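ok so for the tutorial part 2 we go from a plain amino acid sequence to predicted structure tokens. step 1 is just haveing the sequence, like this:
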Amino acid sequence: MDMQHNARDAGVVGLGDPWYDTVASGWGEDETGGAPGPRRARPPAAADVYTEVHGSAAFQEVRRRYRRFVFPAAALFLLWYLAYVVAATTAPGLMARPVVGALNVAMVAGLAQFATTFLLTWAYARHARLRRDRVALELRWVTQEMMRGHGR
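step 2 — the prediction. this is what the tokens look like for a chain of 152 residues:
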């Protein structure tokens, strides 16, 4: 055997390769794991399943619940953050006013930013758990069944 020939063709897989037509585990085999036989009906394509689930009333309800919480919460938090930045920029005298000891209004407002971030995270997780997770989990199971070809 010529070494140059082997090195040149090492990565090429020809159609005569015995591994080329070998079936991967579970694909095209019958239930006993034997040789490929007549193929069963293929499950629907992922795009078809996505389109069907995306159009379902349950999916639209999950999205509606998500949007009804996230958009107002994000807008309020952004306004609160911008109010802090604007106040720090335009009213330095107000922000420098002492509250307790060396703690001034700017420090209290800055710490409140952290507190509201944690509060918003907690509220989001609670909202998801109480209003969306159950329906989303049901949609997940329906989608998995559809991908297996069992459908609804």
